[in-house]
Each structure stands twice: as C-alpha cells, then as structure tokens.
Amino acid sequence: MPNFDYEAPTSLMSALELLAQPGENRPLAGGTDVIDQLKSNRRNADLVVDLKRIPELLNIESNGSGLHVGSAVSCTEVHNFTTEKGGFAALAESTELVGSVHIQNRGSVGGNVCNAAPSADTIPSLLIHEAVAHTASASGEREIPLIDFFAGPGQTVLEKGEILKELVLPTPSANTASAYLRFIPRNEMDIAVAGVGSLIEVDPSTNLVTKARIALASVAPTPVRAYAAEEFLEGTKIDADAIDKTADLAVGSAVPITDVRGSAEYRKELIRVLTRRTLTICLERLA
Fold this sequence. Notes:
single chain; alpha+beta; Uridine Diphospho-n-acetylenolpyruvylglucosamine Reductase, domain 2; Uridine Diphospho-n-acetylenolpyruvylglucosamine Reductase, domain 3; five-stranded antiparallel β-sheet; 26% strand
C-alpha cells in the first residue's frame, strides 16, 4: 500500500478543512472499498480522513421529515433500524446483502453510495425511496436528488473537499410497499449480476397504483430508474398482467454489457424476472 497521512477528526468542520487542503485527500466512512482500492493502486491518496468519529455522520433517526441516515452509519445499523421501524423494506433487505456480515458491520450505506459501483445493492433501494443526498464542504452544503448523484462507474458529482453528510428518505404513506432482489452466482459475498428495487403506492379503494418507482442495478454505467415502466404502472390496476407488462417495459431501461458474470441478454432477462418478483412481493405486502 502506498504511504499516506491519516487523520481521524471528531468534528465535521475539522474534517472538511482537512479535505479542502491541497493534494489527493480521501474520506473514509468504513474503508471496505477505499482501503482495497489503495492497496491495489486503483486509487491514490496523500491524506485519508476517517469520518467514523464525527457525531453528525453517525446519526440515524426517523422524524417528521423522513429517515435520516448519516454517511458513516454502518449497513448493519441501517438494517436493524429499518427492520425495527418499518416503512423501508427494500433498504432493510439490501443492507443485509452488502458483502459479508463483517463488511456490513464496518461498511456504511454512505460509502456504498459514494463508491458509485453500478452493481451497488443499496442504491436501487435508496432511489425508489427518493433519497436526497445532503453534502457538505468547507464552502457550504448542497442537496442533490440521488438519481443525479452518479456521473459514471465509480464517479459521483462530489467536488474536491465535498463529502456526503447524510441521506434523507421521505416517509412513505401507509399504503406503500417496497422490495429489493438481486441475482448472484453464489449465495453470498458476490457482486450482483443484476438487481431490482421496486416500490408501489396503491389506493386501497380502487387498487390503482398512485406511485411506482423501479430502479435497476448492474445493467448500465450508473444505477438507473425504469421511467417507462413506472409511468405505465401509475394509474393502472395492479394485477398479474400489469406486473408482466411493467417487467417487459423495465427491460427497455437496461443497457447492460457482457462480461464474465453474464451476457447482456442474460441481464435483460434477469431484469424482467426480478421486476416481476419484486412487484409481486410489494403487492403481497399490501394485502
């Protein structure tokens, strides 16, 4: 591993001042990605700033404005919190799929987002729940809809010295359900060949879908929303036929590549299957 300086500030302002210094400065929220990238020379750093001691970044709470997840909160903590509180089933499911239990205990949802891997498991769940990224730098703060946060594989719109402070997810209505599924060749600790997160809000008096959100992983340079599928489903009475048509439309938003884990056509078929399954799960959860 190349030599670099290490700082572990206990205040957000101190961290932002360190990251604003000249040089290649990298924040560390869990380290499960960045340390490996440094070791394999895929990233370089003059300074690594550990964010795990900053109280504002370790906060997770649910209040009137929604679910607030600090960028250094571990996947395990997010899973436990959302499982207990309810309302964000897809996020609870996806945080339990990130690597091994050991990685989940250390790695953060914020880190998973900022690593910006197209195959990241937590991102589709965050997208369907319309998460907003709250960022901070020495010059101020920004709010960025998460769908606009990704610039390419491993790339985000964060500027030099800017970090993800927290993710905010609006509280869903009582008639909302979500689900996340992925396909991997092994039972665990593998990268998704494809993943789908789905969310529906249904009017119980008419069985019409009033809101639909579908997000896809590992089938484009960045995580994507299946807008055509969402638009079709909204205003539609949800049943098996509607789910099948929605799944077919979701495939149109996938632009996968062929690699060692699967062909482009295989990934498209997985999107069709996983969309159908996640929507069916959502419908069952509303029953």
